[in-house]
Protein backbone atom coordinates (compact mmCIF):
# COMPACT_ATOMS: atom_id res chain seq x y z
CA UNK A 1 0.00 0.00 0.00
CA UNK A 2 1.24 3.44 -0.91
CA UNK A 3 1.83 6.26 1.50
CA UNK A 4 -1.29 8.47 1.79
CA UNK A 5 -1.47 11.91 0.23
CA UNK A 6 -0.87 14.68 2.75
CA UNK A 7 -3.78 16.91 3.66
CA UNK A 8 -3.46 20.65 2.99
CA UNK A 9 -2.67 21.40 6.67
CA UNK A 10 -0.11 18.56 6.82
CA UNK A 11 1.57 19.87 3.67
CA UNK A 12 1.67 23.42 5.06
CA UNK A 13 3.41 22.14 8.19
CA UNK A 14 5.85 20.04 6.17
CA UNK A 15 6.70 22.92 3.84
CA UNK A 16 7.52 25.07 6.86
CA UNK A 17 10.57 22.81 7.27
CA UNK A 18 11.45 23.27 3.57
CA UNK A 19 11.61 27.04 3.02
CA UNK A 20 12.98 26.81 -0.53
CA UNK A 21 10.19 24.52 -1.72
CA UNK A 22 6.75 25.60 -2.86
CA UNK A 23 3.45 24.02 -3.77
CA UNK A 24 2.95 23.49 -7.43
CA UNK A 25 -0.73 23.10 -8.08
CA UNK A 26 -2.49 20.70 -5.79
CA UNK A 27 -0.38 17.60 -6.31
CA UNK A 28 3.33 18.47 -6.22
CA UNK A 29 6.10 20.57 -4.69
CA UNK A 30 9.02 22.16 -6.50
CA UNK A 31 12.36 23.85 -5.99
CA UNK A 32 14.71 25.60 -8.39
CA UNK A 33 18.45 25.60 -7.73
CA UNK A 34 21.20 27.60 -9.40
CA UNK A 35 24.42 25.56 -9.46
CA UNK A 36 27.84 27.26 -9.50
CA UNK A 37 28.58 25.71 -12.92
CA UNK A 38 27.01 23.33 -15.41
CA UNK A 39 29.18 20.44 -14.21
CA UNK A 40 28.34 21.18 -10.57
CA UNK A 41 24.68 20.95 -11.54
CA UNK A 42 25.25 17.61 -13.23
CA UNK A 43 27.08 16.42 -10.10
CA UNK A 44 24.10 17.48 -7.96
CA UNK A 45 21.77 15.57 -10.27
CA UNK A 46 23.96 12.46 -10.04
CA UNK A 47 23.95 12.57 -6.23
CA UNK A 48 20.20 13.15 -6.16
CA UNK A 49 19.68 10.29 -8.62
CA UNK A 50 21.60 7.99 -6.27
CA UNK A 51 19.50 9.15 -3.29
CA UNK A 52 16.28 8.77 -5.28
CA UNK A 53 17.24 5.27 -6.41
CA UNK A 54 18.04 4.26 -2.82
CA UNK A 55 14.63 5.59 -1.71
CA UNK A 56 12.88 4.07 -4.75
CA UNK A 57 11.24 7.46 -5.25
CA UNK A 58 12.19 9.59 -8.24
CA UNK A 59 11.84 13.34 -8.86
CA UNK A 60 11.12 15.07 -12.13
CA UNK A 61 14.30 16.99 -12.97
CA UNK A 62 14.72 19.75 -15.53
CA UNK A 63 18.28 20.88 -16.33
CA UNK A 64 18.86 24.18 -18.11
CA UNK A 65 22.57 25.07 -18.07
CA UNK A 66 23.18 25.86 -14.35
CA UNK A 67 19.51 25.92 -13.36
CA UNK A 68 18.00 22.75 -11.93
CA UNK A 69 14.31 22.37 -11.23
CA UNK A 70 13.00 19.53 -9.10
CA UNK A 71 9.34 18.55 -8.92
CA UNK A 72 8.17 15.95 -6.42
CA UNK A 73 4.89 14.08 -6.35
CA UNK A 74 3.93 10.52 -5.54
CA UNK A 75 2.17 9.81 -8.82
CA UNK A 76 0.78 6.46 -7.68
CA UNK A 77 -0.91 8.21 -4.72
CA UNK A 78 -2.01 11.25 -6.70
CA UNK A 79 -0.23 13.94 -4.69
CA UNK A 80 2.42 14.84 -2.15
CA UNK A 81 3.23 12.21 0.45
CA UNK A 82 5.83 11.82 3.18
CA UNK A 83 8.09 10.21 0.55
CA UNK A 84 8.23 13.54 -1.29
CA UNK A 85 8.99 15.48 1.88
CA UNK A 86 11.79 13.07 2.79
CA UNK A 87 13.32 13.34 -0.69
CA UNK A 88 13.01 17.14 -0.63
CA UNK A 89 15.01 17.19 2.62
CA UNK A 90 17.63 14.93 1.03
CA UNK A 91 17.84 17.19 -2.03
CA UNK A 92 18.35 20.17 0.29
CA UNK A 93 21.20 18.31 2.01
CA UNK A 94 22.87 17.69 -1.33
CA UNK A 95 22.48 21.13 -2.92
CA UNK A 96 22.53 23.18 0.27
CA UNK A 97 19.48 24.00 2.27
UniProtKB/TrEMBL annotation:
<dbReference type="Pfam" id="PF01329">
    <property type="entry name" value="Pterin_4a"/>
</dbReference>
<dbReference type="GO" id="GO:0006729">
    <property type="term" value="P:tetrahydrobiopterin biosynthetic process"/>
</dbReference>
<dbReference type="InterPro" id="IPR001533">
    <property type="entry name" value="Pterin_deHydtase"/>
</dbReference>
<keyword id="KW-0456">Lyase</keyword>
<dbReference type="InterPro" id="IPR036428">
    <property type="entry name" value="PCD_sf"/>
</dbReference>
<protein>
    <recommendedName>
        <fullName>Putative pterin-4-alpha-carbinolamine dehydratase</fullName>
        <ecNumber>4.2.1.96</ecNumber>
    </recommendedName>
</protein>
<comment type="similarity">
    <text>Belongs to the pterin-4-alpha-carbinolamine dehydratase family.</text>
</comment>
<dbReference type="GO" id="GO:0008124">
    <property type="term" value="F:4-alpha-hydroxytetrahydrobiopterin dehydratase activity"/>
</dbReference>
